[in-house]
Amino acid sequence: MTGTRPPAPEGERPTATRRARPAYDPSSLVEVAARVFNERGYDATSMEDLSAAAGITKSSFYHHVRGKEALLRAALERALDGLFGILDEPAATTGTPLARLRHIVRRQVEVLVGELPHVTLLLRLRGNTETERWALGRRREFDAAIASLVREASAAGELRAGLDPAVDARLLSGLVNSLVEWYRPGRVPVDELVAEVDRMAFEGLLAQGPAGDGRRA
Amino acid sequence: MTGTRPPAPEGERPTATRRARPAYDPSSLVEVAARVFNERGYDATSMEDLSAAAGITKSSFYHHVRGKEALLRAALERALDGLFGILDEPAATTGTPLARLRHIVRRQVEVLVGELPHVTLLLRLRGNTETERWALGRRREFDAAIASLVREASAAGELRAGLDPAVDARLLSGLVNSLVEWYRPGRVPVDELVAEVDRMAFEGLLAQGPAGDGRRA
DNA sequence: ACCGCAGTCGAACGATCGTTCGGTCGGCCG
DNA sequence: CGGCCGACCGAACGATCGTTCGACTGCGGT
Questions:
Q1: B136-178, pLDDT tens digit by residue?
Q2: Distance (Å, rounded) from C-alpha B172 to C-alpha B157?
Q3: Domain B72-202: which topology?
Q4: Distance (Å, rounded) from C-alpha B29 to C-alpha B89?
Q5: Which residue is nearest to nucleotide C20 (CA to C1')?
Q6: B26-68, what's its fold?
Q7: B6-63, pLDDT tens digit by residue?
Q8: Where is this region: Disordered (chains A, B) (predicted)?
Q9: Nucleotides in chain C with any atom closer than 7 Å to protein CB
Q10: Where exactly does CATH 1.10.10.60 map onto chain B?
Q11: In the beta sheet, which residues pair with residue B206?
């Protein structure tokens, strides 16, 4: 990476002595790391970047953290715990397939927003290390659960007939997951976002019911 | 990157002598590079990886290309040319806002599929170098054009009323762009894919018209 | 007053990165 | 046939990477 860095958004280290024992608990460092990982990309982020964002030197940073990959793993675990937690909720296991699917989608939006940095990290993995491949596998499990629910709802006639439920499931997951690429807390309230995603996914953008210029390619 | 690499999908170099002048034209090397960039991620990809995928040594590779960033730039230009080409098509500049928007979305799917590796690269940029930031700026222009069209269509009453057109535009772009995360040529025909994305975006997944359990958060 | 220890740091480790250089090989043109 | 030149390669460059090490500091407990 020869090019210059984007304007560094972090890194101010209080003037001289850092006597205050700021108690760097592991979870807060994971949060800092996840944020910087997302700004620069995991591979482009150096331990120097991370320690500077935490306000200490690289060697001090290692006193609190096992290493770069351990930070990644911790962040990914937090994301996956949030996502799989949804599948255990009562509303995700009872009712019609469509009702369950719709609940999961809405909750998935909430978890995405609540754990934004960690989920973002999860959705950008490439699988270069064993840790990344493990997380990718878990993520595939989650997507498979949704795909299975879409298939059920489609078989039950609860979804518009016609095309491939597997493709629909991919598009649905893609729609929800794309949030991490632009959503930032504050601008749009979470419940509004949930309503928008739900409407877009299940009712579409069009004004009238079935009309449009409904042509086929 | 201390971890092991994912199973290397390329790199066989014909046994000994490579006397055949395989004519490594620049554009084919860009294609190879884009593919490997997407597999490993740009930063995690070494010039050794690239040259091995091309079937020559690292130093030979430099005889054909200017450097890593030049390869990235070439691939991104190809992606951006394809996308911006859509905006110049007649059907993208005449007709109602909704008709124009719908045409652009369908064509965008086709370009995404036709230039899959290059567009994928574009959609994963982090902005660490000047080249990346330039491409990100161009991409923002494209998204802004779509957002503006969504706003027009919404103001003309062609879209379901209620919520934020800016959010709708983000969701629409996110839905289309998410294709690069799973679509691979062969499985699903392109025209089917176009129809699916169009239907999902504008009509939604639901079976009946406005019904569902249409609750709000 | 003393000690232990968590916290911090500068310096350095080997590895790998993108890139460059000097030189060899062999087909092609004159 | 002689020489040129594009294709190719091994070796090495300085820079930066993740990580380790030894030493210093100052607070809390005894």
A1: 999 999 999 999 999 999 999 999 987 899 999 999 999 999 9
A2: 17
A3: Tetracycline Repressor; domain 2 (1.10.357)
A4: 29
A5: B59
A6: Arc Repressor Mutant, subunit A (1.10.10)
A7: 544 443 333 333 344 565 777 889 999 999 999 999 999 999 999 999 999 999 999 9
A8: 1-25
A9: 7-12, 16-22, 26-27
A10: 26-68
A11: A159
